[in-house]
Structures are given as structure tokens and as C-alpha cells.
């Protein structure tokens, strides 16, 4: 009657959805204020005031048909130029508008890239822990998703495991830094090593291997840690960006793909991206927000709330006896679960109304994700509960 | 290196894109004011003032994290309820929010439906003249696109041709009324006959056949012509809607799918739609505009400009000797070309800087499309040129 595959993708409850439903039910029992929901990556910092001001300014001063009308498939030319200029200023790159394909955010960007590049028998590699949707996005294009085991000591790339997975079918490698869920930022050393391996493998297999940089958390990086800009290290890079996190606009579906001039065949790649956007019905990213983000591109994001939350939660968990790699970015902690079975651990945490996501979901069992983009007071009140939970394991 | 299929979809210049490039080049020769570009379906009526007021009101009075945050995959619950209520008021239906899946507009809605329903060997039928993108959207899901020849006498459904095309592989039938490009509105008689045939064929083939109503032009209907609401005539209907035309918001990517309770298995269909939206990365339609259209749902669209343009162009063309079915809706005329080869005709029209789209693109050769969502003065100035063009054929 319908596509079984789509039915399964739509009916299987994701862990996070199951947690959301549990949270709602449990809130009725113990009160919403006693639920410590660390499961969702929804920014809790309001969009900067300049976003609102820019929207109102555009509405008051620009022509309605131009603000709300169709843009070209790849985006409004002026917005593309402004975004390119902002990137050049920050990263010393040499982009122009033609290097930008405006999209409805990071998920759209990466799925367009997968669809543009992938053919049957192709493989896309991601490093655990990884965003779980990669798998179904890649598989829906007919390609194969390949996961590389995590390096749990620091969540940089596990190169010995990578070496086992890369092969002549590898079409692309996905990098997500700052990382969801580990909060790790890949160091320049890691990126240089990765680029070197890819260049060598391109020669060995005699075909390009693309590097897809999924970087919605780029601006959420702490203590001035450097987040290397990948096109500077590797020519065959596609940058997938979203303004969801930096401008707290996740619902507005706005971002872009960068296709650098240095890529192996710009015109062919750009055309394939346009074709993929067409059949995924992702041409013409939301037009008002194309203008808004272009005008605001490069303006500072306020990450002080996240930084404060991170410190409170990280210190609290360490004090409680948890073991956790200190994150350099994003808004997640990814500590070790206190028993090997991370699902059992997260079940046990529910006793204290601590709602956590098992690491297994991110291809990295034995850990759990705690998103700290929530109220600071909720985090503060949760620390004694984490301590009680840890007590049970002593 | 990349997906050949996507490259072809992205690199082949569509007729309309080719015309746009020609228009730009030719404008440099003869001046922009002397180009009569009838090729684009981009509304030229500004969005109603209440849209702007609603956006500003929401920005000033609602919580930023709720306005710009993630909504549920299927949309903001309150927006879904408001849209359902507005539909019930207009059509006497009995929808609630759960019948609505908010989407990024009509193209997203129909491609989600194709992906949700279609399996290999399935066939999707559309009636010529049809929106050309149907074909690549259907084919990208792995299903087959089947076109039914036009009834050129009135552009209602050609039932004898339909009878030749419907078969046991038919998964769904796509209806687009008011129609792009013919401007025809399918009468209640047509819809009843279509529904009767589908019910009978469902029995004969012993499986459901879905009716997909692609209706972004619903509100653009003239002289109080009735546009039948399809779920009232046929249970297995999915309604795909966009606010692009009624609110002049084509760039904002906002619309919905209605899944009625009466459909054969609501939970299964809705889940398949959710799954398709997931892999097409179309979960969570743009959040601000979900709220905006929900608050404005049911408010009147100003179609007076289109109606006036239609009358001027229609009367001018008839006077010039063209033959054309008078449209009841949308903002296109679809006259007969003055020679059998519609492409040659449109080439010849370029001599007068009249830019028209051949009917062949819509599966209906021997005709051309003229979009009249352009400046009234441009239309007025074009009439003598159409007359000169017609003179050439006398």
C-alpha cells in the first residue's frame, strides 16, 4: 500500500522521541520542574536581538516581492556574496557568491551532498560518536554508511580504525567538529593527518575522496580553541553549515553548502548539488532568512550561557565521580556511563528524573549524552541527583 | 566521481532557466522595459499587509526560543490546530491538528507524498498539461511517471485517455486544480467522475489508489467559481498545499499535507509521510512562518491584480486572433500556438521580445504558457506585439 521503508523510518520511535514522550508523562506525576531533561539539542539561548532588528528592518524597507519571492535555486545572489565575504574575512579564503549554495540548514546540506555524490556501492565514512541521522540520510541515497570506532580517550579521530574502513569504495568522509555528542573539536594536527591520508588514498584509488564538514557548532567553541577551517587543508572539501546554533534559529531552516574553487571539478560538483537539491525539493532556501543571515553573518554569537552551563555540569559530574572528556565546543557532555550497558544506565538515571541519551545511539556505547542547552537552574539542581545516581554504583 | 543522475538533473538547463538567461542578455540590447517576460510563475502582488504585521507582532510578543526553535517533525501543534480549524470553517471538514503535516511548501509536500507511497513498479498518473517537475520528483523515488493526454477543448480531465493509463500498478493520481499552466478549475462533475472511477478501480485491483491534490492556486479562482475540496469526494485523498501564491510567500517555503481520518489507514500513511519527510530532510517546516500562516489562515487573498491582468491579456489575445480556453484560476493563460510546433512559435515570439513557454514542457504541445503575474503595464504594452506576431501567421 505504501513504501515499507518510509513507514519504518517514520514509525520507529527514536530514542529521543521516546524520551520526550516519557518526559511528558512523568511531568504529570512529579511536576515539570522536577524533570531534568538533558536529551534535546534545542538551543535555549534566545536569537540575538540583531536578528529581530534585521527582520523588522527588512520588512519595513525592502520590497515584499523581493523579500518573500522565489530566489534562484542556489539562493539570493546578494546573500551569497555577503556570506562569502564574511567567510573570507574570518578564514582568509577567497570565496565569492558562486561558491555558496544556500540551503535549509545542516541536515538539508549534508543530505544534498550525499545525494549529489553517492552512487550504489559508494561508502560514506563517519567517525563515532556521530549524529545518528547520518546513517539514514546516506542509506536513502542508496549508498552505504560506514562507522569508524571512537577514540574514547579524547574523541579525536581513531586513525588506526579509520585505516581499516577506508577503501576504494569510499566516496566521502564526514567530519563533525565541534562534535555532537562529544563536544570535541578536531585539532589542527588531527585535520592535517586526516587530509594527508585522504590525499594519499585519492592517489592510491585513483579517484577523489570528498571531505564533508558538517559544522553547525562552529561558533560554539570555548576558551578560544581554534576550529580549523577544512577547505584550507584539503581541496575536495564541502562545508555544510547551519545558522541553527550560532544564531539560535534551528526552526528557521537556514544554512549553506560551500563548494570551493579548489574542488576537483567545480562545475560538475555544483551541478550535481543543484540536481540533488532539486529532487530533494530543497531549491530556494527560505528567502527572508537568506537575507537576515547574510546581513548578520559574522556577528558574534553569545555562548556565555552554554559555557557557564558546561562548567557547572562538567565540574558537578567530575565531582560526582564521572569520567568525561572536557568538551571544547557544542553544547553536550559525553561522559562514560557508570556501567558498561549505557542503555541500562540511562534507564536507571530515570529514577532521579535525569533524562539522558545512551551513547549507543551515536555509535559509541558505554557513554551517555547530556545536552546542557537548558536552564542553568535545572543543571544546578540536577547535580545532587547525579551524585545520588553515582552513589548507587559505588 | 559524482552521481551522474544528479549531475544531469542539475546541469540540464530548464526551458524557463534558458528563457531567464535570454531575457537578461536581450535586456542589455533592447532595454529591460522592452522585454515582455511571461515565463515566470513568481507572484508580483506583495504579501498582504497582515503578514508583515503578524510577523512583527510575533517577534515582539512571543518567546524567541519558541518562535525560532525546533518544532516537532510534523509541525508546531498550535499551528496545526489553527490551520485545521480554518479548513473546517471553509470546507465543512472535521480535521484536527493531527491531520496536518506542516511542510516547506507544495513541492516538498508532493515529493514527500510520492516518496511515502511509491515503491518500485508503482505508477503515478498526472493529467496534461502538468507541472513539469512532477516527472523528476516521481522518478527520483524509483516510481514511474505516467502522463494522460490533455483534453484541449476545456482542459478538464480526458477520461478516455485516463482509462488507457490507469492499471494495477497505479499508486496515485495527481490533480492540480486550479491548474498550472491551463488555468482550468476541475468542475464538481469532473471530480465526481474521477472519484467514481478511482473507487471502482480500487475494487478491481484490490488495493488503494491515492488522489494527491496539489493545490497551491486554490485561492486564485475567479468569478466565484467553486474549487471542489477533494477529501469530500474521495477518502484516499492527500491534500498538498502551499501559501506561496495565496499569501505571495513563494520564497518562504511554507505549506502542509492534509491526511484525512477517512484515508485507508491513517496511522500507517502518516508514519510513511513522516519517514519520507525525514529522509528528504523536510522535518520541521520553517518555524516563524508556521506561526504566521496559522494565524493568518483563511484571511482573504487579493487576487484583483491577477484578475485584471487576466482580462487584459485574454481579451487582447482573442482580439489578436489567438484561440484560448478562458481560465478560471491560477495566473496563467495557455493558448494554442499559431503553428503546430509550439517551440518554433515561441522562438518566433522572441522577435517581439515576447518570452513564452512552449506547451511541450507541460506535456501539451501546440500551446504556450503566458504567466500574467507581471506588471499590468507590461501586459498592456505587449498586446500590439502579440497582434503583430499573429499577423505573421495570417
TrEMBL record, chains A, B:
Does the keyword Protein biosynthesis feature in the UniProt annotation?
no
InterPro entries assigned to the protein according to its UniProt record, in alphabetical order = Aminotransferase_I/II_large, NHTrfase_class1_PyrdxlP-BS, PyrdxlP-dep_Trfase, PyrdxlP-dep_Trfase_major, PyrdxlP-dep_Trfase_small
Pfam families found in the cross-reference section: Aminotran_1_2
Boundaries of every Aminotransferase class I/classII large domain copy: 36-380
This protein's source sits in the domain of life called Bacteria
- The catalytic activity of this protein is classed by the Enzyme Commission as 2.6.1.-
Keywords carried by this UniProt record: Aminotransferase, Transferase
Cofactor(s), by name:
pyridoxal 5'-phosphate
A molecular function GO annotation: transaminase activity
Q: What class of enzyme is it?
A: transferase
Which PANTHER family does this chain map to? ASPARTATE AMINOTRANSFERASE YHDR-RELATED
Family label: Belongs to the class-I pyridoxal-phosphate-dependent aminotransferase family.
Stated name of the protein = Aminotransferase
Its source organism is: Clostridium fermenticellae
Amino acid at each position: 500500500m505504501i513504501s515499507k521503508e518510509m513507514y519504518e523510518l517514520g514509525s520507529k520511535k527514536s530514542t529521543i522521541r521516546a524520551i520526550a514522550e516519557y518526559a511528558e508523562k512523568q511531568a504529570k506525576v512529579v511536576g515539570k520542574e522536577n524533570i531534568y531533561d538533558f536529551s534535546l539539542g534545542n538551543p535555549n539561548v534566545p536569537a540575538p536581538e540583531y536578528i529581530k532588528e534585521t527582520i523588522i528592518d527588512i520588512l519595513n524597507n525592502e520590497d515584499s516581492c523581493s523579500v518573500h519571492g522565489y530566489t534562484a535555486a542556489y539562493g539570493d545572489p546578494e546573500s551569497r556574496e555577503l556570506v562569502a565575504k564574511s567567510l573570507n574575512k574570518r578564514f582568509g579564503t577567497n570565496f565569492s557568491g558562486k561558491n555558496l549554495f544556500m540551503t535549509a540548514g545542516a541536515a538539508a546540506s549534508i543530505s544534498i551532498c550525499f545525494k549529489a555524490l553517492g552512487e550504489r556501492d559508494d561508502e560514506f565514512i563517519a567517525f563515532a560518536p556521530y549524529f545518528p541521522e547520518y546513517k539514514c540520510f546516506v542509506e536513502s541515497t542508496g549508498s552505504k554508511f560506514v562507522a569508524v570506532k571512537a577514540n574514547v580517550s579524547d574523541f579525536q579521530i581513531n586513525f588506526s580504525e579509520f585505516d581499516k574502513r577506508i577503501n576504494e569504495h569510499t566516496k566521502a568522509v564526514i567530519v563533525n567538529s565541534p562534535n555532537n555528542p562529544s563536544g570535541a573539536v578536531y585539532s589542527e594536527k588531527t585535520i592535517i593527518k586526516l587530509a594527508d591520508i585522504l590525499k594519499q588514498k585519492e592517489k592510491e584509488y585513483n579517484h577523489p575522496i570528498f571531505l564533508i564538514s558538517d559544522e553547525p557548532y562552529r561558533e560554539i567553541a570555548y576558551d578560544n580553541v581554534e576550529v580549523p577551517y577544512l577547505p584550507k587543508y584539503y581541496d575536495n572539501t564541502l562545508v555544510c553549515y547551519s545558522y541553527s546554533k550560532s544564531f539560535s534559529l534551528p526552526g528557521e531552516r537556514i544554512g549553506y553548502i560551500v563548494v570551493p574553487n579548489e574542488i576537483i571539478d567545480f562545475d560538475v560538483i555544483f551541478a550535481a548539488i543543484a540536481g540533488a537539491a532539486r529532487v530533494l525539493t530543497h531549491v530556494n532556501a527560505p528567502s527572508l532568512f537568506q537575507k537576515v543571515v547574510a546581513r548578520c553573518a559574522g556577528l558574534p554569537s553569545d555562548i556565555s550561557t552554554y559555557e557557564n552551563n558546561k562548567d557547572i555540569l562538567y565540574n558537578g559530574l567530575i565531582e560526582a565521580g564521572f569520567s568525561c572528556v572536557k568538551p571544547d565546543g557544542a553544547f553536550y557532555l559525553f561522559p562514560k556511563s557508570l556501567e558498561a550497558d549505557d542503555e541500562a544506565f540511562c534507564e536507571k538515571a530515570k529514577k532521579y528524573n535525569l533524562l539522558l541519551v545512551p551513547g549507543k545511539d551515536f555509535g559509541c556505547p558505554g557513554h551517555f549524552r547530556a545536552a546542557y542547552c537548558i536552564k542553568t537552574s535545572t543543571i544546578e539542581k540536577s547535580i545532587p541527583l547525579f551524585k545520588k545516581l553515582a552513589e548507587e554504583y559505588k
